[in-house]
Amino acid sequence: MLRNIPSSTLRELVRLSERKEALMAQIQQLDRRMLAVQEQFGIPSREGDPRAPVTVSRTRGGVRKRSARGALKEKIVSTLRAAGKRGATIGEISKKLKVPKANLYVWFNGTGKSVPGIKKTGVAKYRLR
Q1: Strand 118-122's sheet: what is its strand order?
Q2: Quick one: CATH architecture of 71-128?
């Protein structure tokens, strides 16, 4: 593997490596100067600062259970039934059922059109007939 590399390329790699070491020495010198100035004026260093904890939201048990088939339809129909003639907006249904609005928009655009009795009365507002 190293037999096929020309000597000029190896010299270039050595020269670049030496330059890299010199630059790293300069960076370390700058870091030392910065720390001295920070200590002089009482500025806390970033390395000692506590970082904000990273949290990951998960459902209980780590796995989200799927609803039974047609469960969302039943929940939406019962919510619209409770709303009466006034109807309900997708935002209201979303808050009440704790379902993302995007899921409801998709549901009404697809499945909701084939459900008898659901009527669109305005922008993102539906009611039962």
Answers
A1: 88-89, 125-128, 118-122
A2: Orthogonal Bundle (1.10)
